[in-house]
Amino acid sequence: MTETSTLDAPAPAPVTPPPPGRRPAARRRKGAMKSPSVLLSKAGVTAMLGLATLYTLLPLTWLLLSSTKSREDLFGTNGFALGDEIHLTENLGHLFTADDGVYLRWLLNTVLYAGVGALLASVFGVAAGYAFDKLAFPGKERLFSLVLLGVMVPGTAMAIPLYLLAAKVGLVNTFWGVFIPGLVFPFGVYLARVFSASYVPDEVLEAARMDGAGEFRTFCRIAFPMIAPGFVTIFLFQFTQIWNSFFLPLVMLSDQDLYPVNLGLYVWYSSALTQGHPEDYLLAVVGSLVAVAPLIAIFLMLQRFWKSGMTAGAVK
Amino acid sequence: MASPSARGQRRTAVLLLTPFFGLFAAVTLAPLLYAAWLSLFTTRTSGLGFGGTENVFTGLGNYVRALSDEAFRDGFLVIAVYCAVYIPLMIGGALVLALLLDSGLAKARNFFQLALFLPHAVPGLIAALIWVYLYTPGLSPVIDLLASGGLDINFLSVDNAVFSAANIAVWEWTGYNMVIFYAALQAVPRETLDAAKVDGAGAVRTALSIKVPMIYPAVALAVLFTVIGSIQLFTEPKVIYNASSAIGSSFTPNMYVQTAAFQNNDFGLAAAASLLIALFAAVLSFVVTRISRRGSQS
């Protein structure tokens, strides 16, 4: 029986085409067995991903190559090839000595704004998120909707109102004018609530309460260590957010010594264009590379934490 | 009977919430209220001939002034065009890349994930600097390459600036959203996909009619955050403006605010315009949430 059917089946197909109604079905079934086109072959998929990777990596390659060039080579040689001579050490030396070594100061400022700021913001965020998840208090959800409102208010729309208020209280052009706004991270509270719900089992708290441990002690000694991976995630998010911020420092600061790296690079770049300081072109390029390199390193080392934060909001 | 425990919880809640909400009040609520107050006043040179200035109450005058200013309204038009180009390209691109990674056909998946995400580790301003260098004639290998192919494009002209800015944002955000979509795709139950296979669905059909609908919430959330981000557009056009003043100092609403505040010292107008932007963003994100919720229910 089976033999005849397998022998019979191919025979009529080439000779008499199947009735038109049945054809798409037959084709679809065939598509499930093997890929319908070259694009969906292993090589095709990998090639498409490779093309996209070229797009993401070429600008960074340009940055890396340009940082090794002399000023003549920057303008005179192909951007995606090495220059005539490797000038990286001279460029780095120039970068750290330009304007009395102000670049190092910018780096240090950025570490303070972004590092210390994000650290405190994460502590406050985790504390609040834990309270929202695990503690009973009146008006909880109404208060939480205020947090969500904070998530929705666009950050840059706050720059001018913050500037106006800072002008009123005398914080314009001070360290605090940029540092204090970085301490508030509403999305971090939201994330911390999610993390607390998934990392801290209620039974653990029940047991601690049975043992008569105070609520605050329980948070510090038991819950906080359990949320620690989430803490790292929240820290990384706020760290990059502050490191990225540009509009706020731009309006808040006029003293070069208070600049974060972003603003300093922008000023160098602008003066290269407007005041005819072409050497600043190269400074901005090398300065960008030096600022980006540690960020990329941090990201590569801490991938796991990134992903858990990015997907905590999306996969619920 | 649980009252001592309840009191303890309440007291600890106050302790844990106070730092966040204290600072939240200081750097979010207070500035918004203060800006709202300032937006009701305008500075006039006094008519007595002493040459001094005084603050005059104008009610909603600054809001009317901002909304009737063509430069401000054009900024929103620019954002609309920017969104129309950027969001489909970026979200679509991220979705396609995530589906390719998830198709089971890709090699070196971890490498691709990393390489595609990498631009997101670059601060926005530095990304803008790199790209504007790549847009600058005489410096850019891209322009040389296009020119040798007979294409002559001025990336920094008024007409192209929106696309140039959108490209920078696509570069920064596609990989980020791809990672989110890919993670969501991996959470799609294998049984569902196996069932589709048994029913004879091909790879493309499975992707379009099963995988994409299943990760719809993730996509909707990404669109929401992208819209909020787009209204704030500032860094990229600001850097482009530096390289070529062709696009004008009020190209986007945020650039308009900055110009009003620091070139014209018109703080009442700047405050009003800032609040209008924040309001617009809030309304838009409300609408997007509403639409996407309806979409996921149907």
Automatic annotation (TrEMBL), chain B:
Superkingdom of the organism of origin: Bacteria
Claim: Transport is one of the keywords in the record: yes
CDD domains: TM_PBP2 (cd06261)
Compartment(s) where it occurs, according to its Swiss-Prot or TrEMBL record: Cell membrane
Domain ABC transmembrane type-1 positions: 76-288
Chief location of this protein within or outside the cell: membrane
Membrane topology (UniProt): Multi-pass membrane protein
Transmembrane segments: 12-37, 76-100, 112-134, 214-234, 269-288
Alphabetical keyword list: Cell membrane, Membrane, Transmembrane, Transmembrane helix, Transport
Record InterPro entries: MetI-like, MetI-like_sf, UgpAE/MalFG_permease
One Pfam family in the UniProt entry: BPD_transp_1
Membership in a protein family: Belongs to the binding-protein-dependent transport system permease family.
Protein's name according to its UniProt entry: Sugar ABC transporter permease
Source species of the chain: Streptomyces hydrogenans
